């Protein structure tokens, strides 16, 4: 299993679980579902779209290792800072 930076912050397995890939992805998905519902209420997107997003948001179907690998290969947008 690869070592992750988060692993160096604690030796407590319960805390490790809080920051596992699955937990982090679950938090991201919950955020996106909540955002979709707010956007639906505000008329930014159709309410039916928000409901569809919620139905599709089944983290259990995701392969977190494949997602991590794909995200590492994805092109990154470079953000400019004052130091550049």
Describe this structure in words.
With 84 residues, the protein is an all-alpha fold. The chain has a domain at 9-59. Helices cover 57% and strands 0% of the residues. The chain has four helices and no strands. Helix 2 (21-42) packs antiparallel against helix 3.
The major beta sheet can be summarized as: none
Distance between the termini: 36 Å
| Overall strand count | 0
Structural class category: mainly alpha
List keywords for this structure.
mainly alpha, 84 residues, 4 helices, elongated
What's the topology here?
Layout: H1 13-18, H2 21-42, H3 47-56, H4 64-73
Helix pairs in contact: 2-3
How would you summarize what this structure contains?
The chain has four helices and no strands. It has helices spanning 13-18, 21-42, 47-56, 64-73.
């Amino acid at each position: 299993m690869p070592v992750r930076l988060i692993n160096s912050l604690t030796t407590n397995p319960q805390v490790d679980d809080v920051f596992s890939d699955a937990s982090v992805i679950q938090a991201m998905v919950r955020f996106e579902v909540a955002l979709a519902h707010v956007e639906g209420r505000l008329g930014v997107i159709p309410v039916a779209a928000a409901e569809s997003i919620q139905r599709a948001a089944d983290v259990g179907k995701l392969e977190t290792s494949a997602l991590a690998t794909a995200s590492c290969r994805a092109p990154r947008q470079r953000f400019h800072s004052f130091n550049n």
